[in-house]
Amino acid sequence: MSEKAYQSDVTELKKILRSHSIQPSHHRLQVLSYLKNHRVHPTADMIYQHISAKIHTLSKTTVYNTLKIFSEKGIVRELNIDEHELRYDINVEPHAHFKCVKCGKLFDVFDKTLLPDREMVDGHIVSKIDVYLQGTCKECAGKE
Ligand SMILES: [Zn+2]
Ligand SMILES: [Zn+2]
Questions:
Q1: To 5 degrees, how large is the angle CA 107–CA 42–CA 29?
Q2: pTM of the entire structure?
Q3: How far is residue 87 CA from its own chain's centroid?
Q4: What is the CATH number of domain 96-143?
Q5: Which ligand lies nearest to the CA atom of residue 137 in the structure?
Q6: Where are the domains of the chain?
Q7: Ligand nearest to the CA of 135
Q8: What is the CATH number of domain 3-89?
Q9: How far is the CA of 97 from the centre of ligand 2 (A)?
């Protein structure tokens, strides 16, 4: 994303952070901007690699700490689809995920039939819903 585009949307980003009682530091704004503009469910490392290329003062620890705060305040959702890597989703609305075993991409799935439409299941109170599907994505299937 260009520097100009980042500038134009910085007011909006600050608003989001403030509404979640997070002090909008430069680094936090950069991380949020990346998440909003790269809907790929990135890992902390992907975010670090991308931003640190232009902002050399950014450390990996800052990225991890920022993501931790974002997650605690409900700005991002942590996805444990793979035990080896934690991914981050800026979309905290209920939705399922589909992981392609061929290309490794993680897709959003907004099929409501995959998600319970109520807050109680068998008398249990639901507080978190993680639906993960795995298989071959349509792009990879088309190449076969
Ligand atoms: Zn694929
Ligand atoms: Zn998602």
A1: 125
A2: 0.84
A3: 6
A4: 3.30.1490
A5: 1
A6: 3-89, 96-143
A7: 1
A8: 1.10.10.10
A9: 6
